[in-house]
Amino acid sequence: MNVYCLLCQQRYVPKLGWSDFLTVKQADVLCDVCRRSFSLLDGERCCHCDRPFSLVADSYRHGELCTDCLRWQQADEWCDVLTKNRSVYVYDEWMKDVVTRWKFRGDYALVEAFRADFCREFFRHFSSDVVLVPIPLSRERLYERGFNQARALAELLSLPIADVLERIDSEKQSQKTRLERLRTVQFRLRTGEWRCDQCVLVDDLYTTGSTVYHAARLLKQAGMRDVSSFTLARA
Ligand SMILES: [Zn+2]
Ligand SMILES: [Zn+2]
Q: Residues with Cβ within 5 Å of ion ligand 1?
């Protein structure tokens, strides 16, 4: 059987592998070369946010924590907000290209390329007794892109999804300083009702943590007992 790789469009003979999660044989949607270009997070990492210590200077490491997490932990209003973050891939040049194509050029089908790794890693770190909360896009962004990448990822996991957050700030976060970002209210709650008191926020990227910390704080304030996050890549 010959099929075309979702990324490079070359013909290849798909390998049938046992998926760890689905226990059915599934053919990879990528050729071997593209599949091997993804880097799973590996080696020593920050125990809180999953940042690989091999990718940062020694001065960013404080025992088990990275500098960013230490700062969150030292701030009274943030220290109990997020239980942990776990991610799947290193956000390297390859991953940047793939995410750009998927998210900004609307190549929705590419989510299939993440399925096996995303599901396997999720259940290594979290139980199935959680509700997933995808980080929302602003209405303008959703209109531009046609889909919310965080929701597309959450849907891979076949767990309950609660769209309880709404984004209220459409300004580019990256143009703000850390302090400005911390002061900005990014989300509001659409409902305060859920059947589960443990949730996992889902997003494509974890960079400074600002987005997930804001979302997590809102959920904690509304009574959620435990909030963690799971992202496709860790910058
Ligand atoms: Zn390929
Ligand atoms: Zn960290």
A: 5, 7-8, 31, 34
CB 17 within 8 A of CB 120: no
Let me know whether 1 and 71 are in one domain. Answer: no
Domain hosting 26: range is 1-37
How many angstroms separate the alpha carbon of residue 232 from the centre of ligand 1?
19
Same domain, 106 and 216: yes
Predicted confidence pLDDT, tens digits, the chain (235 residues): 678 999 999 999 887 665 555 545 578 899 999 999 999 999 999 999 999 999 999 999 999 999 999 999 999 999 999 999 999 999 999 999 999 999 888 888 999 999 999 999 999 999 999 999 999 998 888 888 889 999 999 999 999 999 999 988 655 656 667 667 666 778 999 876 777 889 999 999 999 899 999 999 999 998 899 999 999 999 8
Write b or e for each residue in 162-191: b if 16 or more Cβ atoms lie within 10 A of its Cβ, otherwise e: bebbebeeeeebeeeeeeebbeeebbeeee
From the CA of 22, how far away is ligand 2's center (Å)? 31
Assess whether 28 and 5 both reside in one domain. yes
